[in-house]
Write a structure and sequence with these properties.
By secondary structure, the chain is mainly α. Strands 1-2 form a two-stranded antiparallel sheet. It is built from 5 helices and 2 strands; from the N terminus they run ααβααβα.
Length: about 180
C-alpha cells in the first residue's frame, strides 16, 4: 500500500478479523456492520439536505420573480392613475417596465417616467394631462374681474432710518 488505506480496504480487513473470531460479541453488531449503517444513514441525510437546498433555491427564485412582477404592476398602476395617457403611451410605459430585471430598476424606471410625464405636462404639451379627482368648471371672466384698489392697506414704516441711526449710536459707531 502506497498511501492511506481506503475505506473499502479497511472494511475488508475488519470483516476478515471478525470472521476469524467465532465468539459472539453479544448484542452489539460487528464494527463493520455499524459503520455501514452509519454511512448509509449519513448518505441519506446528505441527499435529503441537497434536495432541500435545491427546493429552497427554486422557491426563492419564484418569490423573487413574483416580487418583481408585483413591483412592476404597482408602479405601472401608479403611473396610469397619476397621468391621463392614451393607449400608445400606456404601451410604452408597459414596455419600459418589461425591460427591468430587478425591483430597484423598476423604482428607477418609475421615477424617470414620472419626471418625463411631469415635464411634458408642465411644458403644456398634449402628451399628458393631470387627472383631477374633483370636477371644476372654469369661467372665462374669472381672471379679469375688476379690483377695487391697488393701494396697500397697511402703513409703510418710514422710521427705518431713525431706528438705524439709534442702533449706530448705541453700538458706538456714531456719536
Amino acid at each position: 500500500m502506497d498511501g492511506d488505506p481506503t475505506i473499502d480496504e479497511l472494511l475488508a480487513e475488519i470483516e476478515l478479523e471478525s470472521g476469524n473470531n467465532d465468539e459472539p460479541m453479544g448484542d452489539e453488531p460487528p464494527l463493520a456492520e455499524s459503520y455501514r449503517k452509519l454511512n448509509s444513514s449519513y448518505q441519506s441525510v446528505l441527499s435529503e439536505r441537497n434536495e432541500a437546498i435545491k427546493t429552497v433555491q427554486i422557491l426563492r427564485n419564484q418569490i423573487n420573480e413574483v416580487n418583481l412582477l408585483n413591483a412592476k404592476l404597482l408602479y405601472t398602476n401608479k403611473l396610469f392613475k397619476q397621468f391621463h395617457m392614451n393607449n400608445d403611451q400606456k404601451m410604452r410605459v408597459v414596455e419600459n417596465f418589461d425591460l427591468t430585471t430587478s425591483v430597484r430598476e423598476v423604482k428607477l424606471t418609475y421615477a424617470n417616467m414620472c419626471a418625463i410625464m411631469a415635464e411634458s405636462f408642465n411644458l403644456g404639451g398634449s402628451v399628458v394631462k393631470k387627472r383631477n379627482t374633483t370636477a371644476t368648471t372654469i369661467t372665462e371672466g374669472l381672471a379679469s374681474r375688476a379690483v377695487a384698489s391697488t393701494k396697500p392697506t397697511q402703513k409703510i414704516v418710514t422710521d427705518v432710518n431713525t431706528m438705524a441711526e439709534r442702533f449706530k449710536t448705541l453700538a458706538g459707531i456714531k456719536k
